[in-house]
């Protein structure tokens, strides 16, 4: 379930006008920005962008960039974009930075096949290269095989499970973890092509046979970029709520807080299933997610994230 | 240019009724089947299928299968389907037969990125597996990397060329041809991710530097499945008219004729660019394509293919 609270009817024109007013005079009225944009669905936000452009002949996104700054700006900027476009940017940043491949894995595994296609389209449109083209040019070896395989996948979506396949492929994954490099190729094939339902069955079979989850086994073993990406792949496919819970937990646990990761999870999931992630967080930590976040950040950034988390004004 | 001759207006109901009549009585009236289906666009053929289903509560494709046979039936069956669905079937047959990977390469490289996506959708719908899933499960090593990379690509379409990249990647391809296996990985990356325009620039650069086309070099060298697929990839991206000309030439040159290949080219291209393929054929062989084909095949199959080739009744 989503945490976003948005009115069923709003006037894009009035919203655009209120935003314009918040930019005028001495300083910017951040509260208005939060009160409006923090309570609008993706469709409503695009309507506001169009209305603003029509009335003021100006790009709202560009104007916002010049009005606000820091983590608040980054969060508003990520939020105002359409999800596919946002993911395209996140993927591009991750590729160029040469680290944080878990963002690529998230985008490729947690989005539905059609959503992932939309990200690839948005990426092509924005960068005039394909996502896999840039990714393949910046990586090598098994890491490239895994990441390119994940972002180019168009998996079957359905409940059908082949138990025999789950059994065989649990062993393929086991071999890959045990013997490492030598048998990664088959493990990559399995993880990049099978349906998620089938893969969850395979992970379950692994646990039954080997008495322990495969992702735990992987953590014990390795820590290079490829193994990290492999680990993220398995965890995000297996249970993306738990996966996000841990991303958020690590982000706020860090000395200095990892704002990028925190913003990414809140902004990406507020309209989808952040409530579920929040429930998993509470169950795991006996602290409300909004309280934990509120303790670590401040100012307009904090107000904005808490609004997306469903805090009543 | 297409060779198909189709009327701009037709009545799907009347067509359905005429087809039904051709099935009744003693034997089937093949001439009517050819006269109708051999002169209808993909859209018109789908309208006829729907009209037939509505009037007779029967699947036209199934009925045709029971009425006609042999190469004629196969050609009509391939022709009546929507292109994406037809390619999905061709790909599945190629995967299951474990040879003829050139069909996979054709589908992946000659279709536009959006057409290729449509094939992947059709494949998922028909087989409840993804195309790359079945392909990866039936292949290994560099052949798998190449084929899966090709079918999952979503290339940038545009005229922009990066000459420096063309230069560098011409050398990558050169190394791959020269040193073989060891450097295939980079060559596969280049061939499966760059835009076709960029790749043609790279092939041209290769010719300038090394004085000879890369596909010729590849033929000299190898002949295992992977190298054949690599060769087909380069040829079909470089100039698919020339590529198809050769497929047809080989198909009719063979003792016994390769009807599958012949049908595939005629049926797949009649509505797109078979006229251009035919012109390339004439230039190369000084024989009209329709005459060359007419000499090798017979009966209703011959009548049907020649109709698709634009022969006036």
UniProtKB/TrEMBL annotation, chains A, B:
<keyword id="KW-0677">Repeat</keyword>
<dbReference type="GO" id="GO:0005737">
    <property type="term" value="C:cytoplasm"/>
</dbReference>
<feature type="binding site">
    <location>
        <position position="252"/>
    </location>
    <ligand>
        <name>Ca(2+)</name>
    </ligand>
</feature>
<dbReference type="InterPro" id="IPR018252">
    <property type="entry name" value="Annexin_repeat_CS"/>
</dbReference>
<feature type="binding site">
    <location>
        <position position="67"/>
    </location>
    <ligand>
        <name>Ca(2+)</name>
    </ligand>
</feature>
<dbReference type="InterPro" id="IPR037104">
    <property type="entry name" value="Annexin_sf"/>
</dbReference>
<keyword id="KW-0041">Annexin</keyword>
<feature type="binding site">
    <location>
        <position position="254"/>
    </location>
    <ligand>
        <name>Ca(2+)</name>
    </ligand>
</feature>
<dbReference type="InterPro" id="IPR001464">
    <property type="entry name" value="Annexin"/>
</dbReference>
<feature type="binding site">
    <location>
        <position position="256"/>
    </location>
    <ligand>
        <name>Ca(2+)</name>
    </ligand>
</feature>
<feature type="binding site">
    <location>
        <position position="25"/>
    </location>
    <ligand>
        <name>Ca(2+)</name>
    </ligand>
</feature>
<feature type="binding site">
    <location>
        <position position="294"/>
    </location>
    <ligand>
        <name>Ca(2+)</name>
    </ligand>
</feature>
<dbReference type="GO" id="GO:0005544">
    <property type="term" value="F:calcium-dependent phospholipid binding"/>
</dbReference>
<dbReference type="InterPro" id="IPR009118">
    <property type="entry name" value="AnnexinD_plant"/>
</dbReference>
<keyword id="KW-0111">Calcium/phospholipid-binding</keyword>
<dbReference type="GO" id="GO:0005886">
    <property type="term" value="C:plasma membrane"/>
</dbReference>
<dbReference type="GO" id="GO:0009651">
    <property type="term" value="P:response to salt stress"/>
</dbReference>
<feature type="binding site">
    <location>
        <position position="23"/>
    </location>
    <ligand>
        <name>Ca(2+)</name>
    </ligand>
</feature>
<keyword id="KW-0106">Calcium</keyword>
<dbReference type="InterPro" id="IPR018502">
    <property type="entry name" value="Annexin_repeat"/>
</dbReference>
<comment type="similarity">
    <text>Belongs to the annexin family.</text>
</comment>
<dbReference type="GO" id="GO:0005509">
    <property type="term" value="F:calcium ion binding"/>
</dbReference>
<dbReference type="GO" id="GO:0001786">
    <property type="term" value="F:phosphatidylserine binding"/>
</dbReference>
<protein>
    <recommendedName>
        <fullName>Annexin</fullName>
    </recommendedName>
</protein>
<dbReference type="GO" id="GO:0009414">
    <property type="term" value="P:response to water deprivation"/>
</dbReference>
<feature type="binding site">
    <location>
        <position position="27"/>
    </location>
    <ligand>
        <name>Ca(2+)</name>
    </ligand>
</feature>
<dbReference type="GO" id="GO:0009409">
    <property type="term" value="P:response to cold"/>
</dbReference>
<dbReference type="Pfam" id="PF00191">
    <property type="entry name" value="Annexin"/>
</dbReference>
<dbReference type="GO" id="GO:0009408">
    <property type="term" value="P:response to heat"/>
</dbReference>
<feature type="binding site">
    <location>
        <position position="296"/>
    </location>
    <ligand>
        <name>Ca(2+)</name>
    </ligand>
</feature>
<keyword id="KW-0479">Metal-binding</keyword>
